[in-house]
Amino acid sequence: MKKRINKSERKFQYAERLQQSGQKPKDLNVHARSQWQWTWTKMLLSLCILSASIPFLLYLFSDSIDLSRPSDIGLNHTINMYLTPEQGVRVGVWHTVPEHRWKEAQGKDLDWYEKALGDGSPIFIYLHGNGGNRSAPHRIGIANVLSAVGYHALVMDYRGFGDSTSEPTEAGLTTDVLYLYHWVKARSGNSPVCVWGHSLGSGVASTTAVKLLEQGKQFNGIILEGAFLNARMETNKLTEHPFTWFYWKFPYIQYFLFNPLKNKDLNLPTDENLQKLRTPLMILHAEDDHLVPFASAQEIYRIAKKAQNSDERVKLVRFDGSLGYLHNGLYKDPGLPNIIRSLCSH
């Protein structure tokens, strides 16, 4: 019959073994702590290596996507096209039609998509930020939201981004957008054409809007998401990678990776541009934006509201920091479709 050993007997046996080995309980505690410290050190080292390697792996993965085939990543009512804003410059654009036309869009060619622009649905030209290409998840997310609302979305990679050729410059970025605007207007009839600028794209959007104004034309509406006041101090900070929400605490990663405009001399003065514009404007900004502080949105709102002298034409929509949207996640908000509709209803 097995003998039952109580707690006091266990302690006695344990102490007896320690005495025979000459080892003290304190020594064992130190040894145990040392093992735990080494385990935690190895775990931290592994996490650091993982944190450093994932951006490279993601970059290699995004670079391997064939941007000429949007259907490969599930965009089944989207077509790829290339435009030539200037001689020797080719820019890639994805055109996503309204979701209710997705069945009709299956197997259609570029000519069908061009004619679809004249169906009366609002059209959004989406201008992305500084880094990556039009296949980034948050950019696809915005295109899908616009499509679900019933709008066309045209997402362009400026020159030097994605599979677009040439080198990016401030003049080149705005030239690309102006060309796309006129290309759309030539095919869209009386359909309203709006622009959505995210991050660095907000500066491109406002600068292009001013240039259009000089030509006697204007967008029907402007959305600025995660917008900064001007690009002079911001360009090297805005390196939007799909995992920026994780890597923003590691600025050395952001500085060296995925930044075609690093060290470029940009201005893109949104603060000055908004003083000239009278276009319906909506400013979208997350309170927890880690790249552009919410105070930037508040100042943009103040400038635009003063310039237009209207509470109706200028709106600031804040997204609570507890939602965790940061700089790239606003497309996840379930209320975004109605917010967009309210701009196009003006």
From TrEMBL:
Pfam family, one: Abhydrolase_1
AB hydrolase-1 domain mapped to chain residues: 122-253
Protein name (record): AB hydrolase-1 domain-containing protein
Keyword annotations of the record: Membrane, Transmembrane, Transmembrane helix
GO BP term, example: monoacylglycerol catabolic process
GO cellular component: endoplasmic reticulum membrane
InterPro entries the record matches: AB_hydrolase_1 (IPR000073), AB_hydrolase_fold (IPR029058)
GO molecular function, one term: phosphatidylcholine lysophospholipase activity
Keyword Membrane attributed: yes
